[in-house]
Specification:
heterodimer, A: alpha+beta, Jelly Rolls, 2 domains, six-stranded antiparallel sheet, five-stranded antiparallel sheet, 13 helices, about 55% helix, B: alpha/beta, Rossmann fold, six-stranded mixed sheet, 8 helices, 9 strands
């Protein structure tokens, strides 16, 4: 009978784990099974007229698993022409879709959406050829550049455009939308099963150790955590009270600050730089909230040891608690700014869906990530005060190298993309933006990157901090 | 009556960096010129003693003899260079009263903050709250930020928190001169009360009369060595004779 509290707690743990697993599965399953992709159109460059009976072919590799919609910039030469256009999609050896549409359906100026009754499934990597055959004279737009707000960027040909076997310059102006089937949802349950089994084994092991009086790392961490929980709470409450003690609006600033920053960036970047990002306010504030937390938590955490020199010299406490209390107290701010983010989403008509339930997951990972960085910085700064100046420069550099106020699309391709993707904040911000802008669960690779960065940062932070902590008192 | 503090062949030496680099540039330059000179300073050299539960022990010695280092080692603030320090029980280190105070916060908030820093939990502090407030005699100022307190009020508050929460080991570094004469009498009574209740007390003082009055055993340190360790009156007599020379 002496095990019964443990058994009860274990059962509770198992139920909570199963509940969370199921909830998470429900949230991500659809978004992890398929994702929408689109092949962006080139901008109108030249116009070519195709006489009746001419056959126009545009080959391209769509890079998607199924085509769901098609839009063309094709118009009849004379306004009241009657007739039909034969459209087809073919893979190298066979025709996979064809359709006749009346010329009268074509819009007079602009794109005409061509409905596909059902998604046309492609085998992966295959190249497609769009064929246009008409019994009236047509005008077709083609081009070789893409317009991003102000400037035209030349694009490579996606394939060959030809009319009656004569090659034409550039690509046809057209929009191809489709979807990509993802395999990730299939791996979710096995991964969670292994994780659950590992957790179960670990808790049984820790329990066995505590029953037999063996000490182990996890048990010690749990005991310390229980003992100093109240101190952590008090330190966090202190930071929060002091921060807004003599300001008129108090903690309202936690929400007002990101809002005002968003307004500022919005005015600067939507008027002067004419950013063309969809739902720019939400795009901005998502980046601002995450980056501000990163900046606050790491800067405050960095000062935690030298700022508490008086205490460290006089009272013994586990020193981890100082940087930790700073990242936790900044996370109260993070919570308030997240509420403001949700409000901005509400007012700007962003999609509200079940993906929002994933926000806490990424915020917790972000807090862990920042705690690791804060521990490293707070240990180094004890020995070299230069760290604080270097870090403020590093923060400014990171601010520029993270797409916060500019569109992701202006990042140059190739080598630069790799550099941007290696930035942990890019991963966090991309994940959050997928939730806030598109209402979709972040891609698995994104989630894995965020988990990996948090684990790496907290591991490295603990290791460096532990290595140096006994020397702090000698240098303060 | 078990052993509650044990110093087992403890040495503590500080590596004093003579070139005193505190910026990266200075460090790199000094390292490149091979000018990083260190000097080892032995604050304690192979010191061993143990203290039983309920003992009241005074530590005496000249400035720089290693008294405060000993207290910091026992509180866990320093880690010994060699040897082992073992303690059992909850320590209230009063190395400097009120070191955990935040001057922007009110007296009420500071009671909880300082109590938490000394390692006490919320339930205990709530239970002891009224007693702490009335002992420190600051009732009417509780909601003022403590930066408005006089130094006497601060010391009274700090003393009340550290002693009223019933630690198992009380470490006292020159703090009996707290507040006015009435409060000094009150605080001395309070410490004597704790001694009777079985709290282990370790105190450092230059006031030999206080030591003679309160302690049962005295350890005399000089240059990091134990000169004498034994019955109070005898050690104090020898110390005073030595200092008179």
């Amino acid at each position: 009978m002496e095990h019964s509290p443990f058994v009860r707690r274990l059962l509770q743990g198992v139920l909570i784990f199963l509940g969370l697993t199921a909830l998470f599965f429900w949230v991500v399953h659809d978004d992890w099974s398929e994702t929408a992709v689109s092949l962006p159109s080139v901008t109108r460059g030249d116009i070519v007229s195709a006489p009746a009976g001419a056959s126009v072919y545009q080959s391209f590799s769509p890079g998607m698993d199924a085509v769901t919609s098609l839009a063309l910039d094709v118009h009849p030469l004379s306004a009241n022409a009657e007739g039909t256009i034969h459209l087809s999609l073919a893979v190298p050896d066979k025709m996979i879709w064809e359709k006749d549409i009346p010329v009268s359906m074509l819009s007079e100026n602009g794109m005409t959406a061509i409905p596909l009754e059902q998604a046309v499934t492609l085998s992966s990597g295959s190249s497609l050829t769009l064929g246009i055959l008409s019994d009236v004279d047509l005008l077709l737009w083609h081009g070789n550049s893409q317009n991003t707000g102000r400037i035209d960027i030349p694009v490579e040909n996606i394939g060959q455009l030809s009319m009656d076997s004569v090659p034409l310059n550039g690509n046809l102006v057209m929009l191809v939308e489709g979807k990509h089937y993802l395999q990730s949802a299939r791996f979710y349950l096995p991964v969670m099963f292994c994780l659950g089994a590992a957790l179960l084994a670990l808790s049984l092991y820790v329990h066995a150790c505590s029953v037999h009086g063996h000490s182990n790392l996890i048990l010690r961490i749990l005991q310390t955590a229980r003992r100093y929980r109240f101190l952590l709470k008090t330190l966090v409450a202190r930071d929060f009270k002091i921060k807004y003690r003599s300001s008129l609006l108090g903690f309202v600033w936690s929400g007002l600050h990101p809002l005002m920053m968003m307004g500022l960036y919005y005015i600067v970047f939507s008027t002067i730089f004419r950013s063309s990002v969809k739902n720019f306010p939400v795009y901005l504030i998502t980046g601002i909230v995450i980056f501000n937390y990163f900046g606050d938590a790491t800067t405050l955490g960095m000062q935690a040891i030298i700022g508490n020199a008086g205490l460290i010299n006089k009272v013994y406490l586990p020193k981890y608690i100082y940087p930790l209390s700073k990242t936790v107290s900044s996370s109260l701010n993070l919570g308030i700014s997240t509420i403001v983010l949700l409000l901005v989403m509400l007012f700007s008509g962003a999609p509200f869906g079940k993906a929002l339930l994933l926000i806490p997951v990424f915020l917790v990972l972000l807090i862990l990530f920042c705690s690791g960085i804060a521990m490293i910085l707070s240990a180094w700064i004890v020995f070299f005060r230069d760290v604080q100046f270097l870090w403020s420069v590093a923060l400014t550099a990171l601010n520029f190298f993270t797409p916060i106020f500019y569109a992701e699309s202006i990042i140059p391709h190739g080598w630069w993309t790799t550099v941007f993707h290696a930035n942990p904040l890019y991963q966090f911000i991309t994940a959050m933006r997928r939730i806030t802008l598109e209402g979709l669960a972040p891609l698995p690779v994104n989630l894995i990157c965020c988990i990996a960065w948090s684990v790496f940062s907290i591991g490295l932070g603990l290791w460096i901090f532990k290595k140096h902590q006994d020397q702090f008192v000698l240098y303060l | 009556m078990g052993e509650i503090i044990c110093m087992d062949h403890v040495s503590m030496s500080f590596r004093i960096n003579k070139t005193r680099t505190s910026s990266l540039k200075e460090y790199v330059i000094a390292k490149a010129r091979r000018q990083l000179l260190y000097e080892n300073f032995h604050a304690l050299d192979d010191v061993s003693f143990s203290i039983q539960q309920g003992d009241v022990v005074g530590i005496i010695g000249r400035n720089g003899s290693g008294k405060s280092t000993t207290l910091k080692l026992i509180s866990g603030i320093y880690r010994p260079t060699a040897g082992q320090v073992r303690t059992a029980g909850r320590i209230a280190p009063m190395l400097e009263l009120g070191s955990g105070f935040d001057f922007e916060l009110s007296g009420r908030e500071n009671i909880f903050l300082n109590g938490a820093i000394l390692g006490f939990d919320e339930a205990m502090l709530k239970r002891k709250y009224n007693e702490i407030v009335s002992f420190s005699e600051i009732e009417s100022f509780l909601d003022q930020p403590i930066k408005t307190y006089s130094s006497g009020m601060l010391m009274r508050l700090a003393f009340s928190i550290a002693t009223l929460v019933e630690p198992e080991i009380l470490i006292v570094d020159e703090i009996l001169a707290v507040g006015d004469e009435a409060f000094q009498r009150k605080s001395r009574r309070r410490i004597m009360q704790m001694m009777e209740d079985g709290t282990t007390v370790l105190m450092v003082s230059h006031d030999i009369d206080v030591i003679r009055q309160l302690c049962k055993r005295v350890i005399w340190l000089d240059h990091g060595h134990i000169m004498a360790d034994g019955e109070t009156q005898e050690v104090c007599d020898r110390y005073q004779a030595y200092m008179a020379d």
